[in-house]
Amino acid sequence: TTIMAVQFDGGVVLGADSRTSTGSYVANRVSDKIVPIHDFIWTCRSGSAADTQAVADYVKYYVDAHSMELGRLPRVRTVANLMRKICYNNKDNLMAGLIVGGWDPYEGGQVYEIPLGGTIMRQKFALGGSGSSYIYGLVDSYYREGMTREECEIFVKKSISHAMARDGSSGGVIRITTIQSTGVQRQCILGSDVCMAMRWNHDYFYHGLNQRLKDG
Amino acid sequence: MSTIGTGYDLSVTTFSPDGRVFQIEYATKAVDNSGTVIGVRCKDGVVLGVEKLISSKMLLEGSNRRIHAINRHAGMALAGLAADGRQIVTRARTEAANYLSFYGEDVPIKELSNRVAHYSHLCTLYWWLRPFGSSSIIGGYDMDGPQLYTIDPSGVAYRYYGAAIGKGRQAAKTEIEKLRLAQMTCREGVMAVAKIIYGVHDEAKDKSFELEMSWVCDESNREHQRIPTDLLMEAKAMARDAQEDDLDAF
């Protein structure tokens, strides 16, 4: 699995591959690893599929009741807190690496990473899954502060396609979910377009960077 | 005086033929016999004030507190049986702490009041429990601004601009209604509350009393705290003068 989330001004971009494997057998080559917890808060799942589905379902249930009682949209921080409570208190029995990404009207776009032990870390971008280890270098060199929504999407597509190329447990299609105050959009990058994404819009990317360096 | 519920008032799980639960009403009487407690919601915060009747000259000043902090942003003032009130405060504190631990944000005041009301109501459902003999006024400041709630022994929570419970509540409510709370700052609210409490205190019937006040407002950085000593002195002095002026008027 490779999962990723990036925050930008006004929202977040979540991305994931689509391979679920049992050993070397690919059980599902088009799985959806990005699940909605609330209208503007989604989660990327990695680790045991059963464990992460169970945790996500619990949190969805709690957040539903919570936001109903509050009478307003829940905070991304709240969802992340609930996730990590469950992950931490059951750390002996779970194998779940989660990334919570979403938008709320109080703090804007946020990304929280909850790795295996149940730590919670707010970050500008987060990586997870077995494929993430192959792209840390790529991500560190390509990431810049203040990227726009389009730049973030390209960044995520590029990174995940590179991870899918090198990690045996990652593959299939790239699923992207972009969350903003205006709404949520889902994309799917298939087949040969995944290879293209590795070289995708190189110029656009560097053009943006050069422009920023010029503008100072 | 109100009616006596002959036979239907023995248990909190019994309704009377006209649909009343007398035990709850009797519990409310315990509140009505205690010192007055007032809360006002001004434009930038909430002020709570308590007329703490002193039963003995030997009591240390400042002991037997009737206003308690629930969390940073909310405080609770109690009327009625002191021990029952203490229990409610402990429960409110636990609820606030649990909410923060669970949801990662401060409990909204509305939610806190609902939880306290739920707890009070719980004790009216079972024959082996008795209703709490105390009402509380919760004053707090959260994302939706300053808020004031009252919870009574029957387990209902109401949100108010200005509220009064206890002995002098009728007179206090009349005074509060005269205030223009939406335009008042908390500093002015402190003076008003002090004046009202001194006004409703019945010198003839009750012995001396101690004024206990707290606020949560912009000036206190949205934190619930006791009124700063100098402001409290000033309020007490003004209230005492106002009383004397009223007496002179006669």
* Side-by-side strand order of the widest sheet of chain A: 10-1-2-11-12
Spatial sequence of strands, sheet with the most strands of chain B: 8-1-2-9-10
What is the rounded distance between the termini of chain A?
Answer: 38 Å
Globally, the shape of chain A reads: globular
Shape of chain B: globular
Which value, in Å, is the CA radius of gyration of chain A? Answer: 17 Å
Q: Given the helix and strand composition of chain A, which structural class is it?
A: alpha+beta
C-alpha-based Rg of chain B, rounded: 18 Å
Protein architecture, described:
The complex is a heterodimer of chains A (216) and B (250). Chain A is of the alpha+beta class and 216 residues long. In chain A, 38% of the residues lie in helices and 31% in strands. Chain A contains 6 helices and 12 strands. The longest helix of chain A has 22 residues, at 49-70. Chain A is globular and about 50 Å long. The mean pLDDT of chain A is 92. Chain B is globular, with a radius of gyration of 18 Å. Chain B contains 6 helices and 10 strands, in the order αββββααββββααββα. Chain B has 250 residues and is an alpha+beta fold. The longest helix of chain B has 22 residues, at 82-103. Classes of the chains: A alpha+beta (216), B alpha+beta (250). At the A-B interface, helix 1 and helix 2 of A face helix 2 of B. Chain A: Pfam families: Proteasome. Chain A: This is Proteasome subunit beta. Chain A: InterPro entries: Ntn_hydrolases_N, Pept_T1A_subB, Proteasome_bsu_CS, Proteasome_sua/b, Proteasome_suB-type. Chain A: Keywords: Cytoplasm, Hydrolase, Nucleus, Protease, Proteasome, Threonine protease. Chain A: It is found in: Cytoplasm; Nucleus.
